[in-house]
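Standup notes
- DV: blocked on the single-chain target, sequence here:
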Amino acid sequence: MSDARVMATLDDLESLLASMTDDPDPRAIAAWQISFKEALAGAERGPQWPVIVSRAQNLAKCLDLKVNRLTAIRGLIKQELLNRAKGTRALSAYAPRPH
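- DV (later): unblocked, structure below
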C-alpha cells in the first residue's frame, strides 16, 4: 500500500460527503471507514504525509458538520413526533363518548 491509497480513500470520503443527503446510508460510511483503516495501516507516510493529514482533518471537520446537522434534524423530528403524540392525546379527550 502507499500514501496514494490513503488519498484515494479521502477522495471517496469527499464524494460520499458531497452526495450525502438527510438520510445517509450507514453501510456506505462503514464501508468507507474499513477502506480508510486498511489504507492507513499500509501507508508509507512519505513526504506528502503532512498534506494528507491536513486534508483528512479538513474532511473530518466537514463530516462533523454533517453529523451535527443530521443530529439537529433528528432532534426536530423527535420533537415533532412528541408534539403530535401530545396533540393526539389531547384531542382524544374531546372525542364523543358512547352512551
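- Follow-up: The radius of gyration is 22 Å.
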